[in-house]
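2 proteins. here.
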Amino acid sequence: MACSSGDRDNFVLSGATPRTGKACMTIDERTDHRLPPVVDLMPPGARLDGERLVIGGQLASELADSFGTPALIIDEVALRARARRYADGLAARWPNSQVVWASKSLPCTAIYRIMGEEALGIDVAGGGELVMALAAGADPSRFVLHGNAKTDSELAMALEAGVGTVVIDNLDDVERLERLSSREQGVLIRVIPDVATATHDAIATGHQNSKFGLLIPEARALIERLRGSDRLRLDGLHVHIGSQILDVAPFARAVEAIAALGEFEVYDLGGGLGARYTYDDHPPSIESYLDTLTEAARRFLPSSARLLIEPGRSMIAETGVTLYRVVSVKRGATRTFVAVDGGMGDNLEVSLYGQRFEATMADRVGGGESYTVVGRHCESGDQLIESVALRDPAVGDVLAVAVTGAYCLTMANNYNGALRPPIVLVAAEGARLALRRETYEDLLGRDAAPPPPS
């Protein structure tokens, strides 16, 4: 349901943000209407129907009623617009280029299909991602296969499928590929540029002790070896310095670092641009990021080279919202806990990276008192959000957590036998299930048959 401009104009809500204590109101840059700040963290086009959250043209609380909770809601229109913004922006700056979606951010067959329809390449890491991308009908010649520990079976699958590019992470990759390849295979060498980034250690990959890639001296030696291979065609170099990076300068330094290895036909500059998870985050725009990469390429790389980039988090994080149902509200010694029917089973980023998220009651958007949102799992670390402003949460209410499109479902698990949530695609014309909720039958389906009675 759409809200009228009058509904937006007349929406006035007092309250406090969890950090500043200032009035919980702002001018939304997308619409020029007064909206609570949390709406600006929702997918572009999110709005209010009275005080109720609308995502992709659908009421959040009605989505929860229809598909259950927890559920990951992806705004398909926002996702396609993001893909085109990346593809068109890169092509305008460097025509000989290709955007390759880092599918580890949300591996789901329906999402692979969308990216393929938008003519993006696909970054796959491992057999499972490869199988889903192929099932979606995406073009394998545009696939880039990654992984620091590729097995024989995974490489054989990739070669049989006709994967266009394999990224060599180590010398063992070379041995396996030369043994398994029956035709010429295009490869890139992943290079460690020794570039530090201001991100969490778990998602920093450009430093000297990264488990991914080869240091520049080792990469230089491998370049010479591959130039003599009769099975592997060295197309160029790959570099990736990490994830959730909020400063463009390290990306330029990485380009300069790999340029010292010589001139090649292809340079894959990886991904890593951060998303805006909280009110305090101010990531560079896609345009600023692309400007930085292509300006560095003009300075340091051959003008004839083909550029690849691999956005993941910055492509899909802000298109997603997770809906939960409140199960309990309990006052502790110094905090009041709102417990929901999900948690670290569907969002490990808080426990793993210390990532901050923001949330709101779906039918009473913005403002309120401070609460701590916790999950249902038997773990004290199962805390989703510390100190978030919510208005009168009660058992049965729907809670909406913003910016959950990337890596939350990727790392979903069965802690306490929890069922992994569905993915729901929304657009103005309606909502459709992209990935069903796991069932208890699924949990039992992998059990081996018991031995026959003696």
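next one coming up
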Amino acid sequence: MRHVVVEGLPAVGKSELLDLLARYYPHRVRVLPELVKTLVESNAIDLFQERDRLTQAILEALPERQRHLESLLRQGFLCLEESHLGVHLAYANALDDRSFLEAYASIQDALPRPDAYVRMEIPVSESIDRQRARGTAQFDIDAPTLRQMLTHLDRWHATRATTLCRVDADRPPQDVVAELADLLSLSYGRAPDEPTSTFDVLLLLGRPASGKSEFIDFMTQCSAAERAARFHLGPLRILDDFPLLWELFEQDDVWESVRHERRWSKRCAENYAVTDDSIWGYLMEQINRRATPLLTPHSMGALPFTLLIEFSRGGATAYQGALRRLSPAILQRAAALYVSVSFEESWRRNVARYDQAQRSGILTHSVPREEMERTYGQDDWGTLAHEPSGTLPVHGIDLPYATLKNEPESTDPSVLSHRYQSALTPLHSLWRRRFHPR
């Protein structure tokens, strides 16, 4: 991650937060102050009455701003920029500022494309209170204008399919700072020359009940620093296709009640079994639709999070077929971790977790034996991946992979930590070599 823009309503605390990060991470972070506010103050421009003059000042300042940004990026800093001209465009729409609306059309293609945007979120009413408290009436903006601006800004992000992360800023400041540092993968005390790199996309594969959920639970309980340093994972965004599958089962329940027929599944004991194997291709396409917008081409190797995509497949060409359906946009950013257990161990854990669910209510589903044998009895991972780690050719892309041996079952954090690190360390080396050549 190299260039991140922080946006938010007036008086949310953007300047203060960014100044704090720059102070505490001097070897990693550089802050670019809000361009519009800087120009208003340095040129004594009335923010609301001199919009034409402000537009001209922005156009004149952009080339130097771009040179400054490029210089910092070349030096290897993480550039945190306060606000952006998409926000100013949203205000221009709310204020009917025709001068900037016309000017923006001529400059938008030349503007930098950050790796991510972070929105510090507070209610409009809280912004009004904080504006009054800071005592800078020349910058105060009323509630109706703020609401209009947010509508236009949301549309701007949606149209450009930006990577937009949201941080709740309506809470104690220490919590906001901690989440922002976590989101940016900032680890206090890191040596200036120590590389910071976490997986962009991790495909988490394996039979049902192989330990994928336990892996996620373990990682979410790690501190951000330990998760990045030992396991090479950033803040996690999780995309699991099981809820999509379960939704189709429930849709079948509805159709059965209406038309007395089902499309994808049949009832099996207290659960469901798949009857139409085209459902697996459908789920992969749904993964593509949800994941691809997060992986914009300009942010190669620089996501502010690790996107973890979890799924199970079975059959003679299970993972071969699934991987081939993945979008190249995902594969170019991904590494694959296969959590390996035998079929019988998978079935044993599947039954055990369902029994636990009946007692505690934590889990409410399991895969029926009929479905386990038909769908997951055979698994092609061993055919595809002959070594503990390596690369798999998919769509002409060398996909790094590692196999995590997850038997015997353990709940000991020290055992799990060793297992996970032993698999993820060589996997990260392969991934980094692929996407971050030295």
